[in-house]
C-alpha cells in the first residue's frame, strides 16, 4: 500500500493533552461522553427538585383556604343585584344613537382604506 492510514505523530506531539484525550476517546468513549452526560442529567434532577418544591410552596401560599370568618366577610362589600332592575337600566340606554370613530393607527400600519 502506498499511503498509510495512520498519520505520523512525533513523540513531542503525543505528550500533549489533546493527543492523550484522542487516545482515551478511542479506547473508552463512554467514560468521556456518556458518564458526564448521565451525571449532568441525574445531578440536574436532584438540583431542580428543591426549586420545583419552592415554586409549588409559593403557589400554595397565594392560594390558601379561607377561614370561616373570611368566608362570612366576603359577600358584604358586593352590591345587591336585581334582575329586573338591571334589565330596565340596560333598556333605558340609547343604543341607536352612536357614531363610528376611526382608531388612530400605529406608524407604518395599513389604515385599511383601499
TrEMBL record:
This is Cytochrome c oxidase assembly protein COX16, mitochondrial. One of its GO terms (biological process) is mitochondrial respiratory chain complex IV assembly. Keywords: Membrane, Mitochondrion, Mitochondrion inner membrane, Transmembrane, Transmembrane helix. InterPro entries: Cyt_c_Oxase_assmbl_COX16. Coiled coil: none annotated. It is a single-pass membrane protein. Required for the assembly of the mitochondrial respiratory chain complex IV (CIV), also known as cytochrome c oxidase. May participate in merging the COX1 and COX2 assembly lines. The chain crosses the membrane at residues 30-54. The keyword Mitochondrion applies. Belongs to the COX16 family. Its main location: mitochondrion. It comes from Apiosordaria backusii. It is found in: Mitochondrion inner membrane. One of its GO terms (cellular component) is mitochondrial inner membrane. It holds the Pfam family COX16.
Amino acid at each position: 500500500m502506498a499511503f498509510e492510514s495512520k498519520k505520523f505523530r512525533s513523540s513531542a506531539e503525543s505528550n500533549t493533552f489533546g493527543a492523550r484525550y484522542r487516545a482515551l476517546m478511542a479506547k473508552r468513549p463512554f467514560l468521556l461522553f456518556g458518564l458526564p452526560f448521565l451525571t449532568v442529567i441525574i445531578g440536574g434532577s436532584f438540583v431542580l427538585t428543591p426549586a420545583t418544591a419552592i415554586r409549588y410552596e409559593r403557589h400554595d401560599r397565594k392560594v390558601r383556604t379561607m377561614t370561616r370568618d373570611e368566608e362570612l366577610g366576603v359577600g358584604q362589600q358586593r352590591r345587591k343585584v336585581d334582575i329586573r332592575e338591571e334589565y330596565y337600566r340596560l333598556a333605558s340606554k340609547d343604543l341607536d344613537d352612536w357614531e363610528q370613530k376611526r382608531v388612530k393607527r400605529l406608524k407604518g400600519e395599513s389604515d385599511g382604506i383601499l
